[in-house]
Amino acid sequence: MSAAFARLYRRSPTALRHQRRRASRCRAAPPPRRTAPSEPDEQKALSGLEFVQGLVDGTLPLNTLAETLGYDVAEATAGRVVVTLAPHDRHLNPAGTVHGGLTATLLDSCMGLAIQSTLEKGIGQTTLEFKISLLRPITPETGLITAAGVVLTRGSRVGTAEGRVTDASGRLLAHGTTTCLIFER
To answer: Which of 97, 103, 100 is nearest to 85 (CA)?
Structure first.
């Protein structure tokens, strides 16, 4: 890059904003490392619903991705889990809206945990595939968003669920479906 081009780039308001963002990220302390129970025996001792309710009431720690992105598991009943997030500037893509990957993560989490909430002790699940549709842009001005996952069907090897992301007014922002593999831990 030539020196003249570099000077122009540094003067660009967009470039300055990105430089400030990068600098603030470098100075910020990393989020606290909290992980879900790492001992297999500890996880096997809980039913899926007990595990997810532990995430809701704080007796079990959230996974590191939830901590990093800032979302929370807010509600859990058998077959239904709600995840919430207040979007911030750190969640934005270059176009100025919340990155679609964040919305995908919220949907993957609430749908997978909904299936987890139906499992017996010693049984786990993992996502095989999921599909999402983004319907409206999400910005920090959107306010608190809610992702609710509900089990559609669950067998002994495979479970399916659907999820919906809404704003505080109940407007549908995104929706999706998942298929999860169910396995013995």
So the answer is: 103
Q: For residue 11, give the 3-state DSSP assignment.
A: helix
What is the CA 142 to chain-centroid distance, rounded?
A: 17
User: What amino acid occupies position 48?
Assistant: G
Half-sphere exposure at residue 87, Cβ-oriented, CA atoms within 13 angstroms: 27
DSSP annotation of 43 reads H
Spatial distance between the Cα atoms of 148 and 162, rounded to a whole number of angstroms: 8
Phi then psi dihedrals of residue 23, to 5 deg: -65, -40
> How does DSSP classify residue 140?
G
Distance separating alpha carbons of residues 46 and 34, to the nearest angstrom? 19
CA distances from 71 to 88, 103, 121, 129, 158 (A): 11, 11, 26, 22, 26
The pLDDT, as a whole number, for residue 185 is 86
**pLDDT, average across residues 112-124:** 97
58: left (phi over 0), alpha (psi -120 to 50) or beta: left
Q: 12 falls in which pLDDT band (50, 70, 90)?
A: very low
Q: Of 114, 72, 94, 101, which is closest to residue 174 (Cα–Cα)?
A: 101
pTM (two decimals): 0.79
Task: Give the DSSP H/E element, type plus range, for residue 178.
Answer: strand 172-184
